[in-house]
Design a protein that fits this description.
- It is a single chain.
- The chain is α+β, with helices and mostly antiparallel strands and 493 residues long.
- The chain is built from 16 helices and 11 strands.
- It starts with a helix and ends with a strand.
């Protein structure tokens, strides 16, 4: 019986001795085994396993000190042979927050972690650097300037080039070398004898790298593509073919750009720029051709109905003639002439067949009903009154203003209800939301319609920023309270 009890309890005892407790200890051992660079005499490099040459460490500290003192960024470089079974990204975040990398107010910290046995490099950024170093840019720096050297076992060169690219991006907004310095890749090494390194600030030549102008051109073209696609999608007529073509092209072009960025595909920037402009141009013309096809298939003989269709189909598309002036230089004037002809050409009298004439604006008010006159006054509908000189027959046609903010009044059914300034009843505070009334006032019957609206409560502002301004003033390092924003990237080699 005692032996059987031992068999029952032995696995539990082993689990308690070797399980979670031991795993937690192994997991946290790297936090104490890797020293905080601030404890190494204001160093910016923590390399307890001596993976770097001494000259590389000196060069890195000499370069990162001025960057830190300028308060642009505080960059810590960490190298270790192993962190056990811990995930490098988790370790980078834990070290960043444990050491509080970066200034407390600016959150300008950046941690570069290289784990040798897992063949992994990680960048961890503070909130203040996420705009300057978005995840995709961190990944591209690793892939272009570090991974090729790491695959060759040239750790010193990988760290040097990665740090140099980060500093260039932070100080100049461009991670690539200027063309005039590209030849410096073959400069003599700045290191101990036998070290395989190049001077900091220089990077290996990248035949696929874009110039600054090309990168800006591609960025503008892609922004143009996305913005036009969204606007055109919202304003597209009922034809669904061009909409599917527009969406499919947007996905394909953005996918091509991502493959160029992530996998360094040799796609000429001119191709992306042409596609960014040319694809919306093609889709816009296809959409307008679809409108013309629908117009040709209309069965109604009414000129008024044809005018209403054309006007509604082109509403909100006038900006296209400025964005694509070459393609629409002939189309848009032709469309405007057709619209004018549908409205301005004299009608035949429905009673006697004689040509009718349109009354001037000063005279047609006597024919219109009071509600119609009110609609003209608020600009929601414009009325044309045609009169036959032979028999006195009159024809009243309405032309809606598609850009008006006037709505149909629920009481008199005229489009004369105009928005009024909102009436706030309860203002929102940090402890509760607010509410008020959206007001519509009819310019014809004076009916007032109220719709209740609510607002969310205000977010309470952090008081920690004001109280933390004096901390760390006596230290030469700005690393005095930063926190990780969770941004950055990782690469394996």
């Amino acid at each position: 019986m005692p032996f059987r009890s031992l068999l029952v309890w032995l696995p539990l005892l082993l689990f308690l001795m070797l399980g979670p407790g031991r795993g937690a200890a192994a997991q946290s051992s790297y936090l104490t085994a890797i020293p905080d660079p601030k404890t190494l005499g204001e160093s910016y490099v923590s390399d307890p396993d001596h993976l770097l040459q001494p000259a590389t460490v000196r060069d890195l500290n000499a370069l990162l000190g001025p960057l830190d003192q300028s308060r642009r960024a505080h960059l810590d470089v960490v190298l270790t042979r192993s962190i056990g079974q811990e995930v490098p990204k988790t370790a980078a975040t834990a070290l960043f927050n444990r050491w509080k990398v970066g200034d407390r107010q600016l959150n300008n910290g950046l941690l570069l972690l290289l784990v040798l046995d897992q063949r992994r490099v990680e960048f961890e950024t503070g909130y203040g650097l996420e705009a300057d170093l978005p995840d995709i840019l961190c990944y591209r720096i690793q892939q272009r300037y570090m991974v090729p050297y790491l695959r060759q076992g040239r750790i010193d060169e990988a760290v040097r080039q990665g740090v140099a690219a980060l500093i260039r991006q932070l100080t100049t907004g461009r991670m690539d070398l200027p063309d005039s310095l590209a030849a410096a890749d073959s400069a003599p090494a700045l290191s101990d004898a036998g070290a395989d390194t190049q001077p900091l600030g220089y990077a290996a030549a990248d035949p696929g790298a874009w110039s600054g102008g090309q990168a800006v051109g591609v960025g503008v073209a892609l922004f143009f593509l996305v913005a036009l696609s969204l606007i055109m999608w919202i304003g597209t007529p009922a034809t669904t073919g061009p909409r599917r073509l527009l969406a499919g092209g947007l996905v394909l072009i953005l996918g091509l750009w991502l493959l160029t960025v992530l996998l360094n595909w040799a796609v000429p920037p001119a191709v992306l720029m042409v596609l960014g402009y040319g694809w919306p141009l093609l889709c816009a013309h296809l959409m307008l051709l679809g409108v013309q096809r629908e117009y040709a298939q209309l069965t109604t003989p009414s000129r008024h109905a044809r005018y209403v269709f054309l006007n509604a189909a082109h509403h909100g598309w006038g900006w296209l003639r400025f964005v694509f002036p070459l393609g629409l230089a002939l189309y848009w004037p032709r469309y405007r002439r057709r619209l004018a002809a549908l409205r301005d050409e004299p009608y035949a009298c429905p009673a006697c067949g004689q040509p009718m004439h349109r009354l001037p604006d000063a005279q047609d008010d006597a024919v219109l009903l009071p509600g119609q006159r009110a609609e003209e006054q608020v600009g929601s509908i414009d009325y044309d009154v045609w009169e036959c000189g032979a028999c006195g027959e009159q024809l009243v046609l309405d032309y809606a203003n598609l850009s008006t903010d006037a709505e149909i009044c629920v009481k008199c059914n005229h489009q004369t209800a105009q928005p009024q300034p909102d009436e706030e009843i309860v203002a929102a505070t940090s402890s509760h939301g607010g509410w008020g009334w959206h007001v519509l006032l009819c310019a014809f019957c004076q009916h007032e319609e109220r719709t209740k609206y609510t607002t969310n409560r205000l977010s309470s502002s952090s008081s920690s920023s004001g109280s933390s301004s004096s901390s760390g003033g006596s230290s030469s390092s700005s690393s005095s309270g930063g926190s990780s924003g969770g941004g950055g990237a990782g690469s394996s080699w």
